[in-house]
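Question (not urgent): is this output format expected?
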Amino acid sequence: MTPETDHEAPSRHEPIEMVLARLLRLGSLIAAFLLAVGIGAMLLGHTGFAPRLITAGLLALLATPIMRVVVAGLIFARDGDWRFAFFCLVVLCALVAGVLLGHERGE
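Got this back:
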């Protein structure tokens, strides 16, 4: 085999994977930054806004995979891949149901 034939043709979902990878990386970096600043502020004795920063970091961390499902569904719908768009919608409904049921039990 020559080096030219070793490489497979790029998958049609490869651009989707790149967008989703960037989204996960960005969400994780934002969450890590908020958490680090919040923890640093708490260690320095700024207890007024430190818990809010930590909470914002945790919410960003939790929202990142949810945003991944939303963005994937939008990309699949835009590309006319309705089967995968439907799967994303089902997963999103399950996530929303879990959040709502968890919120009811937490009150």
